[in-house]
Amino acid sequence: MIASRDSLREFTRGIRSLAFTGSGSSEYVGDCVRVPIQNELGIVAESVSGGALLLDGAKALPVDRPDFWSPWRVREIVLKASEP
Q1: Domain residue spans of the chain
Q2: Rounded to whole angstroms, what are the CA distances from 32 to 13, 59, 72, 80?
Q3: What are the angstrom distances between the C-alpha of 76 and each of 14, 58, 62, 83?
Q4: pLDDT digits (tens, 9 = 90+) for 25-57
C-alpha cells in the first residue's frame, strides 16, 4: 500500500471521504485497507457493509459525501502501480 501511495493519491484527489462497500470477504478487505489508506492519504475512510447500505441507505455513509470503492478497486490500483 505504501509503495502505491502516489497512485492512490492521484485517484483520490479532491475526495474528502471514501467508503469501501461490500459484504463478506469484500467487507473484510475494506476493513483491512481503510486505516492504512486513511493514515497515508489523510482522508476519512470507512468500510460499510452491503447490509448496512440496504437497511440504512445514506445514513450508513460518511457525512462528507463519499466516493465509493470496492476493495477490488484498491487492488487494481495497487497492482497497476507495481507494474514495471
Answers
A1: 2-81
A2: 21, 22, 12, 20
A3: 20, 26, 24, 11
A4: 888 888 888 888 888 888 888 888 888 888 888
> Is the CB of residue 23 less than 8 Å from the CB of residue 49?
yes
pTM of the predicted model, to two decimals? 0.65
The 44-49 sheet, strands edge to edge: 44-49, 17-22, 67-69
Indicate the pLDDT class of residue 66, thresholds 50, 70 and 90: low
DSSP one-letter code for 70: -
Q: Are the C-beta atoms of 83 and 36 separated by less than 8 Å?
A: no
CA 38 to chain centre: 9
Estimate the share of the chain in helix, then strand, then coil, as percent rounded to the nearest 5.
60, 20, 25
Inter-residue contact 17 to 45 (CB < 8 Å): yes
